[in-house]
Design goal:
Layout (H helix, E strand, L loop, with lengths): L1 E6 L3 H12 L4 E5 L10 E2 L4 H7 L3 H7 L3 E2 L1 E5 L5 E5 L13 E4 L1 H15 L2 E4 L2 E8 L2 E9 L2 E12 L6 H5 L3 E3 L5 E9 L12 E5 L6 E6 L4 E9 H5 L5 H9 L3 H6 L4 E2 L4 E3 L4 E3 L3 E2 L2 E3 L5 E2 L6 H23 L4 H28 L4 H5 L4 H8 L11 H13 L23
Parallel strand pairs: 1-2, 1-11, 2-8, 5-14, 11-21
Antiparallel strand pairs: 3-7, 4-7, 5-6, 9-10, 10-11, 12-19, 13-16, 13-17, 13-18, 14-15, 15-16, 19-22, 20-21
Helix pairs in contact: 1-4, 1-9, 9-10, 10-13
Length: 426
């Protein structure tokens, strides 16, 4: 009998294993693939540093030389740039004024090894087929080991299977977002012009002249840069599934992006990503919990994915530790964890919806003396106390003011999505 079985060895699963091992709780991580796995490049938010520090992972990030990320920059279609610097808002428990850009394949492998070093039992290439239940209580998993399927028992099962959403699919909990249907085409490039020296290592986001369209620029190494084009799936369909044509067309629609890519040379094949936003009806049950993308996935425009993975693992681990102290593995016990994560992800979700409505007017809030620090808090991942993000109400009010005035100078720049279609968080 295992104490905890963790399904998935991505950031959520590895951080969960790390916290549990540090608390002296035996845990097994079952990862279906063999690391390093291919994965789109990722840009961290600074609040992630707090979790990395708690599990002792920061020295590894420094040792491996991941590019340091000191801020973020937005480029309007005509070429004007607006930027933020993370040092403007020092965060409690974080001493460094930067976070990291990462090759996710490399990061995930390092995190998994770190969990193993702390005491997690790690098995790669082991496919979990289903979660086993006794009534409504999770009691283990059925996994494929080579040509055999075996049942492994546990007091607690944590689903960190990412966008496979294993338990969510098994229990039919998954609900796709009714509004967002984004589609991305991305690749890695050499010889990208990253901009002015003071912002060259920032994440760069470029507005595109299509509804909810944007592009990312993320340094992966000193030579390799990840570039991605994102728009509605219907926009991509117009290119008859030709990623290169879609990608090249929209590169030329933003002056700054076209300049950055003028001499770029592609270093790998184009990849596509879809199914951008979904939620589960519930995140916890008797003897089980969902963390990371297995629980909730929101459009990744603000690099929120890994941050949510890390913090859901952190918070869920705290309740699991309590469970082993009290013997209470009930859904009621874990309900506080669910409310906390729903609240935090809900802030991300509302922020992203309002952001898409404002494009490209969002830069108004970046340049605003009143709201700049509040926006910075959000962009750094400080989202678990809704009372500290009044800028969301300000963004809504700004949209309503523009919408109600047909002659407003910015009226045509708002997305067609009505403010009434932008619900408050769950």
């Amino acid at each position: 009998m295992n104490d905890v079985i963790i399904i998935g060895g991505g950031p959520a699963g590895s951080v969960m294993g790390s916290y549990l091992s540090k608390a002296g709780i035996q845990n097994v991580i079952l990862e279906g693939q063999n690391h390093p796995r291919p994965h789109v490049g990722e840009s961290m938010v600074t609040s992630s540093t707090r979790v990395y520090k708690e599990i002792g992972f920061l020295p590894i990030l420094e040792r491996e030389g991941f590019p340091k990320k000191y801020g973020a920059s937005w480029h309007e279609i005509g070429g004007r740039e607006a930027a933020i610097v993370f040092a403007e808002f020092p965060q409690e428990g974080i001493e460094q004024p930067y976070t990291y850009h990462v090759d996710r394949g490399k990061l995930d492998l390092l995190l998994l090894k770190h969990a193993q070093g702390l005491g997690s039992e790690v098995y790669q290439g082991v496919q979990v087929k289903q979660i086993l239940f006794d009534g409504d209580r999770a009691v283990g998993v059925r996994a494929k080991l080579g040509d055999q399927e075996v049942d492994l028992r546990a007091k607690m099962v944590v689903d960190a299977s990412g966008r496979q959403t294993l338990l969510g699919r098994q229990l039919k909990l998954k609900r796709n977002d009714p509004i967002f249907d984004q589609y991305a085409v991305h690749a890695w490039f050499e010889n990208v012009q990253r901009g002015q020296p003071d912002t060259a290592d920032f994440i760069h986001i470029y507005f595109l002249p299509v509804e909810r369209g944007w592009a990312w620029q993320i340094p992966i190494t000193d030579k390799i840069t990840s570039i991605g084009i994102v728009a509605e799936r219907e926009v991509f369909r117009q290119y008859k599934a030709e990623p290169a044509a879609y990608f090249e067309h929209y590169i030329q629609t933003n002056q700054a992006l076209a300049t950055a890519m003028a001499g770029a040379v592609r270093a790998n094949d184009y990849k596509t990503e879809g199914d951008y936003s979904y939620a589960m009806d519930k995140f916890v049950g008797h003897g089980w919990a969902l963390i990371g993308d297995a629980a909730r996935f929101v459009d990744p425009i603000f690099s929120s994915g890994v941050s949510i993975a890390l913090y859901s693992a952190k918070y869920a681990s705290e309740f699991i530790v309590e469970s082993f102290q009290t013997g209470d593995f009930s859904a009621e016990h874990f309900s506080v964890y669910e409310r906390k994560i729903r609240a935090g992800v809900g802030v991300w979700y509302e922020f992203i919806r309002l952001y898409y409505k404002l494009l490209p007017l969002f830069t108004h809030f970046i340049r605003s003396e009143t709201h700049r620090i509040e926006v910075l808090r959000l962009l750094q991942g400080e989202v678990y106390d809704r009372g500290e993000v009044p800028v969301l109400a300000a963004m809504r009010q700004y949209i309503e003011t523009v919408e109600k005035n047909d002659r407003h100078v910015f009226r045509k720049q708002l997305a067609s999505l009505s403010i009434d279609d932008l619900p408050m968080p769950e």
